[in-house]
Amino acid sequence: MAGLSDQEIEVIAQRIVASLTGRPAGDEAKAAVRAPAAPAGVSAGDLGVFDSLNEAVRAAGLAFRQFNEMGLTKRDAIIESIRKVMRENRDSLARQAH
Hints:
- This protein is mainly alpha-helical.
- It has helices spanning 6-21, 27-32, 53-69, 72-88, 90-97.
- The longest helix is centred in the middle third of the chain and has 17 residues, at 53-69.
- The chain is globular, with a radius of gyration of 15 Å.
C-alpha cells in the first residue's frame, strides 16, 4: 500500500467525522480519496459493509497489515489528524453520543 499524504489523511478524517455527524464531507473530501480496491477473494465492501462476516474479517486483517506496514510515524500522523478533526467537531459528536 502506498503511503498516504497529509492531505489524504486529513480528507479521511473529515469523511469519518462527516459519517459520524451526518453532515456531508466537502466536495474535495469526496473527490480526493478513492476507496481502495478490495483484496483478492473479498467483495468490494461499500463503506465497510461486506456480504459476509468472513469477507469483513479478511478485509479487516488486510487493512490492519497495511496500516501496520506504514510505520509508526505515518500511523501517528493518521491518528493525530483524526484527533484534530474530532476535536474540531467535539460538540456535535458529544450531542450524538447522548
